[in-house]
Amino acid sequence: MGLEFKDGDWLEEAKRERDRIVDEIAVQLAREHPELFSENKLADEKSKEQIEALARQAVMIREDLTPEEKKEVLQEIVGQSTGYGPLQEFFTPENKDVTEVFINPSKDGPKVFYAKGGMRHPAKKQYFRSNEEVLRYCQKICEDAGRPFTENTPLVDAWLKDGSRIACMGYKASPLGVAATIRKSPTTRPPMPIEKLVENEMLPQFAADMLKDLMVKGRANLGIFGRTDSGKTTLMRALALHINPIDRVFIAETSFELYLPHLPNCINLVEVSFGDKTIVDMTQLCKTMNRNNPDRAIVGELRSKEIIAASQMASSCSGGFWTTGHAGDIHDLRTRLFGMFLDGGVQLPQDFLDEQIASMFDFVIFLDKETMTEDRKRTLMSVVEVVPGEGYRPIISFDVV
Q1: What is the pLDDT of residues 34-58, one digit of tens each?
Q2: CATH no. for residue 169?
Q3: Distance between CA 161 and CA 82 in Å, rounded?
Q4: pLDDT in tens, 171-225
């Protein structure tokens, strides 16, 4: 009886052989150059470049690999060293404009998408052949981050070595299969100049000039609001490029997004969690910032009861308080802020709510994302001046998209 050949077996065998070669080369490099593979070095761009150069040299001399296989093996080795595995190419300097990577389950197998320039794009190649491959990938990357991804912990939010953040969803929590989102570290994504936002038609030049001169240099208290992915963080980082470098700046966030490398006197603070328990929350971070008397205080996003500590800081910070949040217009903002204060145990009468908003903000900016066009670009919708005792005065207003 001859050998029985099952369809697909040769693919599995080829993959096993490639995995063996990858492991062999990776172990050899780690043994010969341990100084490059320490945890603090793996987040360093120069070390990553050295690892890639050494891996390329080791792969090129292999006679048991075709040119195409050498390219794949090189990507896998570099991916192993950085923790990104088959998705490594999205985290190279050539793809610095990519902000997020998504792994979505489907009945046809895992699909990979990426975000670039405020838009989502489907990847042009297959990175995972099955849900099991995605599961193993997420288990490995979460294990490296110290947060096990198991049936008992089917939802994991973890920091990676370079400051990127991964969210994994699987098991019974995601019936179609494992899903994951990796938001790239802001240390790999420099702030986008406001001139670039003008070029991308997010806002006109006169509005950009006003935001820079009147609000940033005038040290106004700012609130930037909009739906998810409307460009709130992008606009805030662009405006922050015009902060005086000597200013003492404190930033508090639930996750590390507002990295501002051009400000040498800047302190970033983030929430600290262990398992399901939050050890240091936004309220504590806001109180810490307040005690340090910053020239400027930035709260990454207002979501709940931390608004009480944030509002105290806004009224005491003379150099400018900035924050972001989810709201589409003034009515929506008032409703959401009322709910946040209620979460903190404070029920504000309507009149006093407006006084409280006036004590927090000089101006509020509303952004949106076009839904009627294919490119769905981020757009400035309105700028509203908050006038104590008088209410809300629109100074820029565009048509609703």
Answers
A1: 655 554 444 455 666 676 777 777 7
A2: 3.30.450.370
A3: 8
A4: 999 999 999 999 888 777 778 899 999 998 899 999 999 999 989 999 999 999 9
Expressed as residue numbers, the domain containing 208 is: 190-397
Which of 82, 111, 130 is the endpoint of a domain?
82
pTM over 0.85: no
Q: Is the pLDDT of residue 2 over 50?
A: no
Beta pairing partners, 397: 382
Looking at the structure, do residues 258 and 329 belong to the same domain, yes or no?
yes
Q: Contact 105/174 with Cβ under 8 angstroms?
A: yes
142 and 257 co-located in one domain = no
Q: What phi and psi values does residue 128 have, to the nearest 5 degrees?
A: -135, 135
Is the domain of 160 the same as that of 199? no
Statement to judge: residues 139 and 43 lie in one domain: no
Residue 3: pLDDT band by 50, 70, 90 thresholds? very low
151 and 226 together in one domain:
no
pLDDT tens figures, 102-136: 999 988 889 999 988 767 889 988 888 889 889 98
- Total number of residues shown for the chain: 401
**Distance (Å, whole) CA 386 – CA 373:** 32
Same domain as 319, residue 376 = yes
- Alpha-carbon distances of 142 from 91, 156, 175, rounded to whole Å: 17, 8, 20
Kindly state whether residues 253 and 172 are assigned to the same domain: no
Last residue of one domain, picked from the residues 169, 186, 203? 186
The predicted-structure confidence for 316-348, as pLDDT tens digits, reads as follows 777 789 999 999 999 999 999 999 999 989 888
The enclosing H or E element of 87 equals none
Q: List all residues 6 or more positions away from 121 whose beta carbon is below 8 Å from its beta carbon.
A: 113, 114, 115
What is the C-alpha separation between 136 and 143, in angstroms, rounded?
10
Say whether 323 sits in a helix, a strand or coil. strand
Pairing between strand 266-270 and 249-253?
parallel
| Total number of domains constituting the chain | 3
